[in-house]
Design goal:
36% of the residues lie in helices and 18% in strands. The N and C termini lie far apart (52 Å).
């Protein structure tokens, strides 16, 4: 590395999921050397105890929330003059917001570099025991905002299911949708209730679907809580059972399609005793 490294520009640096022990040596090295560091605080969350460790690993940092990331003029002006690290939990290019940052940097002639990190979704696949090649498009399950209830996540889950593909369902982190206040990650019971509401709305608007005839509570699911941390849990079962799981902070659901014999055995091994 030369004395000029890292060069001026915006450096998106993946922290890995959950525990900062997943952060690569390159990620730590680049973050330490950057002129300034920001932790992106709305597309994913770092556990509180890991936030407290972050400064000792990479140096002082400030938090950036949704308005400053989606309207990044100030951030890009800083990056024009020096190396600016945007620290992202997981892998930085998993979120559409961060892909947009690359485009904005290109438009303004601002340098842009990515230091990849392990993604929570790849870890979820590994922990599930399901075949990695059998996953379809992942979806985010959002909170409802007033009377606004999106059914597109359910439609994608259904499309995956009828195509024989499993679905990773990321649970929303912000009930306000503004990305400004302290996060309130969706809990398993809220997620199951939201899926039930979506099924009712979809049937009401478009009629019955054979693939959605089974009550939501009887769907198979895998709940992954706080993955990448010492307290991670992976529990399988019917959604009615998973909705009663207590504890944990950040949760992800996997909704399997028809499972092969080996997958079904792996699923059964993860059923809570």
């Amino acid at each position: 590395m030369t004395a000029e490294f890292p060069t001026p520009g915006l450096w998106l640096i993946g922290l890995g999921p959950g525990d900062l022990g997943h952060m690569t040596e390159r990620a730590m090295s680049v973050a330490r050397r950057c002129k300034k560091r920001y932790l992106e605080g709305y597309t994913a969350l770092l556990p509180k105890d890991q936030e407290e460790r972050l400064e000792e690993l990479v140096g002082p940092w400030k938090r950036l929330m949704r308005p400053s990331v989606e309207n990044p003029e100030d951030l890009l002006e800083e990056a024009r003059e020096g190396s600016i690290a945007l620290l992202v939990v997981g892998d930085p290019m998993q979120a559409t917001t961060h892909i947009d940052l690359e485009a904005r940097c290109a438009e303004r002639g601002v340098g842009f570099e990515v230091v990849p990190g392990m993604s929570a979704t790849s870890l979820a696949v590994s922990l599930s025991g399901l075949q990695s090649y059998r996953f379809g498009r992942q979806v985010t399950l959002p909170y409802a905002y007033g009377d606004c209830l999106a059914t597109s996540p359910l439609e994608m889950i259904d499309t995956n299911y009828v195509s024989g593909l499993h679905s990773i369902v990321l649970l929303d982190l912000d009930p306000t949708g503004m990305g400004v206040d302290s996060p309130k990650p969706m809990q398993p019971a809220e997620a199951v209730a939201m899926l039930e509401r979506m099924v009712s709305r979809l049937v009401e608007e478009h009629g019955e679907r054979g693939s959605l005839a089974v009550p939501v509570g009887e769907w198979d699911g895998i709940l992954l809580s706080d993955i990448g941390t010492d307290g991670q849990r992976v529990i399988s079962g019917h959604l009615s059972d998973l909705s009663e799981v207590q504890g944990g902070f950040i949760h992800t659901l996997i909704l399997p399609a028809e499972m092969g014999a080996n997958e079904r055995e792996a699923f059964e091994r993860r059923v809570a005793g």
